[in-house]
Design goal:
Jelly Rolls; Arc Repressor Mutant, subunit A; four-stranded antiparallel beta sheet
């Protein structure tokens, strides 16, 4: 594993609390397989056999679902140090649930399910830390999906936005909050179109409810904001 790729792995949530020297020992147990892809090349297709999770070592990829009619729904973009396939892998799925395509030239390492769940012969503590990290990652993904379903049930665009902004305010207890999602991610999370969401944000700004710049939102009128929350 080159030093360049080690930097990407250190960033990966899968290896939280594991330093570089420990990671090198752990990798000897996991025996990851590295593969390279060209720009626009399909990494995995929906329905392909699933027996490993992937980690982006270099480049960027898109994860999407394709309808019967051929329309593509972008689920997310993933970059260096990010993981894909972990939820399906540990849910007992035998097939990839989505298609992954290279946006740029790409390097990925794959770690098999068997290598992850089997304790290595050295019984190293790093392996246990990694399994704990996986449990945390899968649990957080499940919580996010549950929260996303709550937002899908809110029919009104403004109510979705006000509820989301209020939740961020509740966490920080500050009227100025930095949203953890960018515009594209937020539109996907709320299940709305980005242009419509941007127009609604602009209207809320004109009405003096909020002000914003990029991902920073300042609540100008908390009472008005909460009036639209559900």
């Amino acid at each position: 594993m080159t030093e360049k790729y080690m930097k990407a792995l250190i960033k990966c949530r899968l290896f939280n609390n594991i330093d570089s020297s420990e990671l090198k020992s752990l990798l000897s147990c996991l025996q990851p397989v590295i593969q390279s892809y060209s720009k626009n090349e399909i990494v995995v297709n929906n329905g392909d056999k699933l027996d490993s999770m992937g980690i982006i070592l270099d480049g960027e990829a898109a994860v999407f679902k394709e309808s019967i009619s051929g329309n593509k729904l972008l689920l997310k973009k993933i970059g260096e140090g990010e993981v894909f396939g972990e939820v399906a892998l540990f849910a007992g799925k035998e097939e990839w649930p989505a298609t992954v395509q290279a946006i740029t030239s790409l390097a990925i390492c794959y770690i098999s399910r068997d290598r992850i769940i089997s304790q290595c012969s050295k019984a190293c503590r790093w392996h246990s830390l990694m399994i704990g990290n996986i449990l945390e990652m899968v649990s957080k993904r499940a919580l996010m999906l549950s929260k996303k379903l709550e937002y899908i049930s809110i029919k009104n665009m403004r109510s979705k936005l006000c509820t989301y902004i209020y939740e961020q305010y509740s966490k920080s207890r500050s009227l100025t909050v930095v949203l953890p999602l960018n515009r594209i991610q937020l539109a996907d999370f709320l299940n709305v179109s980005r242009p419509s969401m941007s127009r609604e944000l602009a209207r809320m700004k004109e009405e003096g409810i909020i002000d914003y710049h990029l991902s920073t939102v300042r609540i100008l009128d908390l009472e008005k904001l909460t009036a639209f929350c559900e």
